[in-house]
Amino acid sequence: MASSVLRSLRWRATISIALFLVAIGIAIRSVNYEVTREILLRDIDTQLWTRLSALQTRHLFAPETLLGTDLPLPELTLPDVGLASDLEPSVAMRLFIPSAVTARPFPWFAGAWREDGTLLAALRLPDGISHGEPWHGPMERIRTTADGKARVATCRGSDGTVLLVGTPLAPLALAMREALWFYVWTVAIAIPPLALAMWWILSRMMLPLSRISRTAETIAAGDFAARIDLAAADSELVGMATALNCMLDRLEAIRISQARFNADVAHEILNPIHGILLQTDLSQQRPRTTDELARTIEHCRALALRIQKLSEALLALSKAESTADGGLARLDLEPIVEEAATQVEDLARARHVTLLVDAQSALVVGNADLLHQVFVNLLANGIEYSPVGGAVELVMAQAGERVVVRVTDHGEGIPADRAEQVFERFFREDPSRVTTTGGHGLGLAICRSIMRGHGGDVVCRPTPGGGATFEVRFPAALSPPTGPP
Question: What whole-number distance in Å separates Cα of residue 110 and Cα of residue 165?
Fold first, then answer.
């Protein structure tokens, strides 16, 4: 249960905000507590000073009244401010400073001493005050006693006597405990409604995410055309929704491309298989001569070689897409290009095509085996589509910080509007030439996949005077790329 709560963004946000608000409430209540205590102390000091002034006046104008053991001061002093005022405390005052509005009798005591310490008069003096020496403390001051139990105000009379008025602080401590309890239970009561309010607000705020989740569920159920409604998305989520829609569009394109690719693979494999089955069925229908059987076997072998060649191309394409970004190292491109040219020399001689290679040392970052396959495919493709007696040229050059290799033929060329299509899987410019060339339409797709895995690319450009030029571009940096773009 705890784990599921912690994994819920809504719960975590609700708990975090609730704790934050509780912390703010505690901080505010702490300030209220200190302010309340200061207000009460100031009220106590005001009343103490007023009573001390009354005692000083009595001592000045009627000193004989101080000689009794009981100090008859109440009739000469005003009542507490809270009891005398007609000002009704506001609701805010009752909520935030409840102790300051509670009317309580003001317990206080008083005393007068001669300079020799003889007690002249006393009114409810505590033992610690009546037997002490209050005149040793600061005069004309209000202070808290050393034991912290009372607040006293002292001054000197006209004949050197010491006058004192005070109040015990126990009622103040009681009032502050009541205030503290009030603050605690009000904060505790406020937590549940605050948490519920935060839950409701967060639930409303997360409705757009719920809509996105429902869209994802719709897509998972098979409706691949569903997209996030950008018009209903909040401005903060528009960027994310747009990125998700673009990702979904890309995934849809990949899905369609993969389905088309699977269909093309099935078609390419089924054609030679059907041919083989047809030849074997015909051979079984009637007796054949040795020459006819030999031709049938040769034809079946040719079809089987087509299947083998296609399978090898599919494996090469899979390897190019899965490992092009791994095993990359700094290497010299010149020996790779020369080895690829050597590998296709026999094909060039058979086609009566001249192979011209202008290789030079150039440092690149890549996989030697995969790059070798790129140049073998491009050279073989140029030879196959070159006229008899033509030439295929391979030239290495430096374009700024980039290494560029151009493979040029002078055949029929590729129309500009199909320059990108030739890199699609199973694309053939002239389907009628499948039988004569044995092509499967994967060579250029493999080349582009390998080069993009190396952080570079392969592009097709028309050759001046006719033909096609395939330009292999390597990245400028001499550090391994992080992966395919």
Answer: 4
User: DSSP strand E in 145-219: where?
Assistant: 150-156, 162-168
Asked whether 272 and 308 are in contact (CB, 8 A), the reply is no
Q: What are 420's two structure tokens?
A: 């990108």
Lowest mean pLDDT among 60-69, 89-98, 201-210, 468-477: 89-98
Which residue type does 330 have? R
Q: Which of 54-58, 84-88, 413-417 is predicted least confidently?
A: 84-88
89 pLDDT higher than 70: no
Class of domain 223-322: mainly alpha
- Angle between the 333-343 and 368-384 helix axes, to the nearest 10 degrees? 40
pLDDT tens-digit map of 264-290: 667 667 777 878 888 787 777 777 777
Give the β-pairing of 354-358 and 391-399: parallel
Contact 125, 141 (CB under 8 A): no
CB 121, CB 66: distance < 8 Å = yes
> What is the SS3 string spanning 439-473?
CCCCHHHHHHHHHHHCCCEEEEEECCCCCEEEEEE
DSSP at 117? S
3-state secondary structure string across 400-413 = CCEEEEEEECCCCC
Topology of the domain covering 324-485: Heat Shock Protein 90 (3.30.565)
Residue type, 337: V
CA distance 276 to 322: 33
Q: Cα-atom radius of gyration of the chain, to the nearest Å?
A: 50
**What are the structural domain ranges in the chain?**
2-197, 223-322, 324-485
Tokens representing 154? 């002292």
Residues paired with residue 156 on neighbouring β-strands, in sequence order: 162
Check residues 101 and 121 and name the one with the higher pLDDT: 121
Number of alpha carbons in the 13 Å side-chain half-sphere of residue 425: 22
pTM confidence score: 0.48
Beta partners for residue 111, in sequence order: 122, 164
Quote the Cα angle for 445-446-448, to 5°: 65
Nearest alpha carbon to residue 86 among 103, 74, 98, 69: 103
Return d(Cα 442, Cα 460) in angstroms, integer: 15
C-alpha–C-alpha distance, residues 470 and 378, integer Å: 7
Count CB atoms within 10 A of the CB of residue 478.
12
The answer to whether the beta carbons of residues 423 and 446 sit under 8 Å apart is: no
pLDDT digits (tens, 9 = 90+) for 208-251: 777 777 787 887 787 777 877 777 666 767 777 788 888 888 88
